[in-house]
Design the sequence.
């Protein structure tokens, strides 16, 4: 086909000047991050609903627990199932979306996810018993799996490399906005002693699906997907729209040439099946190495323990003797929202690797302080103040580092032939461990079960210590590189030396320096 680069060439040098980032192009890329609201709101509203007295009355059974209302409360296994089933749905949804995104496109897959999500919301709003509520959250989770996996992929593929980290971090920002909105809605309805107390928070989920699904019709498909499908003209139009440049711009021609050259190079060395995700072993060029990195990174993001606060924070603060637990949950969620935008700047200036290392250090210090003070001074005012203050500092570290950076990195480390599937596997890992943590936590902290209270932070502090070691030894630095350059960098250097790697072009073939 005319205009396609020779198959032997592999581009990705520093000599290509990217098109200036226009406001329109930036906003087009940023809008996709709105998908994070589905993730955040759907994850966050359930914590407040579970603490509502009317919900306990309608969905509960006789209980002598201190948390019961009029002697009624759902059991620990029901609470575990209600919370964690969303993650089970997203796990399978993310895996299914990986193949679907290569078939029908990134944008179409996310739109399909919005429809599936909406069907799940219908069941949640209609529910009057645990069974239908669980079914609704399972189906909604399947749709969120589509969105959470493919939005990251889409943003990574359409964003200019100079602001890719900041734009993908916007996804985490919208997750935090969703969590905050859920907390505000729960606070507004929790004293209502009718079904509106829990149905209003559930029904509002439709708003986010409608806005995202409708808005995506106005965005272009990923130019890299068009390249995969040998649709060069469509790829050119998509790039021109995203970069705010005319079709015949030299910027567009050069970027398209790089995309095509690398796609053809990669297809000569690998295929794009699920099996190919696990080929190559631990070699620098091996796909398995990258899949393990992505899967482990998302696993450790969950094992920072942050979702303990957002899933069970209201209940936990009540157990700690705080009468205004709903307000405290709103405060911690607000800290999450306000801290995340810091990463828009730091992720490009300091880099992904540094944020992950120092963020984990900050979190583990806070977690051990909460655990020690909460155990030694249990029930005291000093312990309560310490818990609130260091929980907020802990959330600050997560929101400004591991929250966004883990999503940014998984969108960058996979070669194009397996990128959709690699991101899907990584996202599925996030949801798998989200499910595990959501399910086991009630057995760790409920007063009728483990009743660990603040001691649970010894667990999170220990896992955060492992996060530090993982980030130091295994996570490469990817800031300032195109996706094609990241692919080469992973083949040519080690994580600890990656920040010094620079791309060069010698005799028409890419060679790292």
Sequence:
């Amino acid at each position: 086909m005319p205009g396609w680069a020779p198959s032997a060439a592999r581009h990705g040098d520093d000599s290509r000047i990217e098109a200036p980032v226009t406001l329109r192009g930036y906003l087009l890329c940023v809008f996709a991050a709105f998908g994070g609201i589905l993730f955040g709101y759907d994850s966050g509203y359930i914590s407040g609903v579970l603490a509502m007295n009317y919900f306990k009355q309608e969905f509960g059974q006789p209980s002598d627990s201190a948390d019961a209302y009029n002697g009624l409360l759902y059991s620990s296994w029901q609470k575990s199932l209600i919370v964690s089933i969303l993650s089970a749905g997203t796990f399978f949804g993310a895996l299914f979306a990986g193949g679907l995104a290569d078939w029908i496109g990134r944008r179409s897959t996310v739109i399909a996810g919005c429809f599936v999500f909406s069907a799940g919301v219908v069941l949640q709003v209609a529910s009057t018993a645990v069974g239908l509520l669980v079914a609704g959250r399972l189906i909604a989770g399947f749709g969120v799996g589509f969105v959470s996996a493919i939005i990251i992929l889409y943003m990574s593929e359409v964003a200019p490399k100079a602001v890719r980290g900041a734009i993908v971090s916007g996804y985490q920002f919208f997750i935090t906005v969703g969590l905050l909105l859920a907390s505000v809605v729960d606070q507004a309805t929790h004293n209502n002693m009718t079904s509106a107390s829990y149905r209003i928070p559930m029904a509002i989920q439709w708003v986010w699906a409608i806005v995202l699904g409708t808005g995506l019709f106005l965005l272009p498909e990923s130019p890299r997907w068009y390249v995969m499908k040998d649709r060069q003209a469509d790829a050119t139009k998509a790039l021109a729209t995203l970069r705010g440049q005319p079709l015949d711009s030299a910027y567009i021609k050069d970027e398209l040439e790089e995309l095509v050259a690398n796609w053809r190079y990669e297809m000569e060395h690998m295929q794009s099946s699920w099996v190919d995700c696990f080929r190559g072993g631990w070699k620098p060029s091996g796909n398995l190495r990258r899949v393990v990195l992505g899967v482990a990174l998302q696993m450790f993001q969950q094992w920072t323990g942050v979702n303990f606060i957002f899933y069970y924070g209201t209940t936990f603060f009540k157990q700690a003797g705080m009468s205004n637990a709903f307000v405290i949950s709103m405060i911690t969620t607000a800290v999450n929202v306000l801290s995340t935008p810091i990463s828009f700047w730091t992720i490009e200036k300091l880099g992904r690797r540094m944020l992950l290392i120092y963020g984990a250090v900050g979190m583990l210090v806070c977690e051990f302080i909460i655990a020690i003070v909460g155990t030694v001074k249990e029930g005291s005012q000093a312990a309560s103040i310490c818990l609130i203050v260091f929980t907020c500092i802990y959330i600050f570290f997560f929101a400004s580092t591991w929250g966004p950076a883990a999503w940014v990195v998984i969108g960058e480390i996979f070669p194009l032939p397996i990128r959709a599937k690699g991101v899907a596997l990584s996202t599925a890992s996030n949801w798998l461990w989200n499910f595990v943590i959501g399910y086991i936590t009630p057995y760790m902290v409920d007063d009728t079960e483990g009743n660990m209270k603040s001691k649970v932070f010894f667990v999170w502090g220990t896992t955060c210590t492992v996060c530090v070691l993982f980030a130091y030894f295994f996570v490469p630095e990817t800031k300032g590189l195109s996706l094609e350059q990241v692919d080469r960098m992973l083949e040519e250097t080690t994580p600890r030396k990656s920040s010094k790697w620079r791309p060069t072009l010698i005799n028409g073939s890419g060679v790292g320096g």
Notes: DSSP finds 21 helices and four strands in the chain. The longest helix spans residues 381-410. Residues 1-9, 506-513 have pLDDT under 50 and may be disordered.
